[in-house]
């Protein structure tokens, strides 16, 4: 091999990962090519993709080159994507956190960009940036609707998507399949793109909550027992293995359509699966389960990831009740 072309070849080979992810999101449909993207279209429609390279090549002891995320440029790519009008950012990789990345993720979220991240492989430690509270951490499930064998699990997992034998196109003229949450995340990103096409007024938080609320509770452990979707009092409907469940594309898009409102649409939630639909909903007084109502012993303004749920009167100590109000409508609320 010509050493002058070695780096270029390594870059080309690793770039197939990004190409594969892009085809899962937006590969054209009904074109007899052998695969179709989640948000593709047979003509000129469908999701548009912006491919930004954030890799650096590392020379291994055996002489191979592998690509890894370059922590010095990932945050710059996020700023660029936001400023260029991206609505969804997909990261099918893990990396170390930094103040620069924290600021970039906040900037994207504040500008209405949905952040969808692969949760990672193996164990119970979610990759960064998937573990960040502003992102949607996507784990994997197999073809039977149970946790993908090499997938991640844990407290911060939001939803799962197919991670076994996922079909994609790594290069022109080639269709193949592989496993991993790298391919689950773009499935979630494609669904998010469809949701935003149906209801462009959805905020990143609305997209996240809708995906969670409409997810399908499924899966069994090695003993054939159903996963426990109520293992954590503060996260009702959540399991360690599947998050809030496996993504239901049809239900998520239909919910986006149902939630569309051209005016004001202010609401709070009394439970995680309350997305404000007026039909088929039984209201409860179960405030302790509300993600939008929380109590603090001190007037410190901390938000709900630090919430304390015990609505008890004290004759000697003040209690501070916080209510988060969401405007799901298209008309900005003053």
Describe the structure.
By secondary structure, this protein is an alpha/beta fold. It has six helices and twelve strands. It has helices at residues 3-26, 74-83, 99-110, 184-198, 204-214, 249-258; strands at residues 55-59, 65-69, 88-91, 114-118, 136-141, 159-162, 166-171, 174-178, 266-267, 293-296, 320-323, 326-327. Strand 7 (166-171) and strand 8 (174-178) form a beta hairpin. The longest helix is centred in the N-terminal third of the chain and has 24 residues, at 3-26. Residues 1-14 have low confidence and may be disordered.
Fold topology:
Blueprint: H1 3-26, E1 55-59, E2 65-69, H2 74-83, E3 88-91, H3 99-110, E4 114-118, E5 136-141, E6 159-162, E7 166-171, E8 174-178, H4 184-198, H5 204-214, H6 249-258, E9 266-267, E10 293-296, E11 320-323, E12 326-327
Parallel strand pairs: 3-4, 4-5, 5-6
Antiparallel strand pairs: 1-2, 7-8, 9-12, 10-11
Helix pairs in contact: 1-4, 2-3, 4-6, 5-6
């Amino acid at each position: 091999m010509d050493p002058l072309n070695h780096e270029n070849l390594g870059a080309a080979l690793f770039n197939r990962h990004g190409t594969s992810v892009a085809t899962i999101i937006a590969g054209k449909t009904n074109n007899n090519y052998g695969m179709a993207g989640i948000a593709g279209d047979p003509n000129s429609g469908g999701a548009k993709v912006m491919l930004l390279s954030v890799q650096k090549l590392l020379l291994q002891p055996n002489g191979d080159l592998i690509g890894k995320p370059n922590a010095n440029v990932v945050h710059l790519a996020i700023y660029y994507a936001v400023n260029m009008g991206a609505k969804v950012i997909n990261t099918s990789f893990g990396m170390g956190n930094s103040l620069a990345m924290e600021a970039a993720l906040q900037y994207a979220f504040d500008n209405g960009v949905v952040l969808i991240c692969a949760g990672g492989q193996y164990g119970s430690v979610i990759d960064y940036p998937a573990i960040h509270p502003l992102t949607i951490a996507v784990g994997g499930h197999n073809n039977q609707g149970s946790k993908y064998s090499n997938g991640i699990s844990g407290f911060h997992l939001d939803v799962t998507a197919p991670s076994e034998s996922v079909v994609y196109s790594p290069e022109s003229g080639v269709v193949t399949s592989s496993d991993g949450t790298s391919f689950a995340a773009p499935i979630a990103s494609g669904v998010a793109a469809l949701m935003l096409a149906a209801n462009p007024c959805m905020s990143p938080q609305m997209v996240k909550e809708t995906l969670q609320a409409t997810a399908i509770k499924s899966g069994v452990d090695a003993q054939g027992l159903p996963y426990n979707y109520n293992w954590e009092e503060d996260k009702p409907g959540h399991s360690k293995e599947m998050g809030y469940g496996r993504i239901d594309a049809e239900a998520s898009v239909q919910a986006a359509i149902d939630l569309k409102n051209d005016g004001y649409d202010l609401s709070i939630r009394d439970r995680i699966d309350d997305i404000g639909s007026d039909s088929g909903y039984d209201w409860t007084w179960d405030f302790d389960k509300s993600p939008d109502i929380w109590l603090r012993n001190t007037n410190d303004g901390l938000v709900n990831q630090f919430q304390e749920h015990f609505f008890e009167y004290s004759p000697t100590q003040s209690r501070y009740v916080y209510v988060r109000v969401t405007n799901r409508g298209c008309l900005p609320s003053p």
